[in-house]
Automatic annotation (TrEMBL):
Its EC number is 2.7.11.1. SUPFAM superfamilies: Protein kinase-like (PK-like) (SSF56112). It catalyses: L-seryl-[protein] + ATP = O-phospho-L-seryl-[protein] + ADP + H(+); L-threonyl-[protein] + ATP = O-phospho-L-threonyl-[protein] + ADP + H(+). This is non-specific serine/threonine protein kinase. It comes from Helianthus annuus. It is an enzyme of class 2 (transferase).
Length: 68
């Protein structure tokens, strides 16, 4: 992904994410969990949510990865 994973921005880069970007990432992650837990035909539990598993595209949209 273009903006790497969330852990890169939290722990490796010196610049801070703007509050609007932080909100966008949190909202995207919450939407992904809602879909996995309630909107998909089977309930899926991720069981390993951590910053290195949150990928960020060029617009800082969060994508949840590492399901297996």
């Amino acid at each position: 992904m273009e903006n790497r994973s969330l852990d890169t921005h939290l722990f490796k880069l010196k610049s801070l994410l703007a509050w609007g970007t932080r909100y966008k990432i949190a909202h995207g992650l919450a939407s992904a969990l809602l879909y996995l837990h309630e909107e998909w035909e089977q309930c899926v539990l991720h069981r390993d949510i951590k910053p290195s598993n949150v990928m960020l595209d060029s617009n800082f949209n969060a994508k949840l990865g590492d399901f297996g």
